[in-house]
Description:
260 residues, alpha/beta, 11 helices
Amino acid sequence: MNSRRPCIGGNWKMNTRLEDALLLARSVAEGVDTIDDCVDVVVYPPFPWITHVADVLSGSRVALGAQDVSSHGDGAYTGQISAGMLLDSGCTKVLVGHSERRHGLGESNSLLNEKALAALESGLEVMLCIGETLEERDSGRTNEVVATQVAECLSGVEAGSMARMTIAYEPVWAIGTGRTAEPGDAQEVHAGIRTQLADLYDAPIAAGMRILYGGSMKPGNAGELLEQADIDGGLIGGASLDSDEFLSIINATMTQGSAD
Ligand code: PGA
């Protein structure tokens, strides 16, 4: 860990019924209230629960995000949800480019770039998810794939908007599989992303950018990942559905020293 304020996100994906979602949100909010205020926490519930969860989180230190956003502002786009709608529902944050949308639904870097621009334009904070598949890793293309995702998804994103951008590096083969990247391997990718951000923008923007790791982060492995110099938190799937596990990962950010 380092001088950047850590961030832990809980991506609930298409899990929970309403009652579970409210209980989970309440437990997380209560738990976070007992922890020192030195970590940002955000949950990304399914769309229909957002306004309900917003009520539960109101007045707490847990921020609310959505799992996706339309690239369009409004109009004839059946089933899509605009950035403005998310803001009106109480969200301040949104995930863009989760691998389950890239690889499950075929979302391209150029579409994700449009989504990121639409979200930033509206005032939302964006968590841009990137990461290589197992095949890409095995063929030695991790850095190239990740660099292309960063460059194409950030195309046209002004330096002034980068304070509302967070990156989540999530190797696709580690998501929901129980396989985690070796901390040193993840650190290497994170450091490469930071170097690329310095080239695309400037050194202060790169140094201030939070780059989270995601992919089977659990209480048992969070510490060794979070202690890496360029890993600034985690985007948690499975373990975010259990408030004890999620809170334990949040607590793990607290035990990491200042490395830079
Ligand atoms: P996981 O999911 O923690 O269940 O691997 C991470 C994610 O999809 O963001």
